[in-house]
Amino acid sequence: MQIVYVPKESSIRLVNKTIVVKEGETTS
Question: Taking the mean position of all CA atoms in its chain, how far away is CA 18?
Answer without folding.
Answer: 5
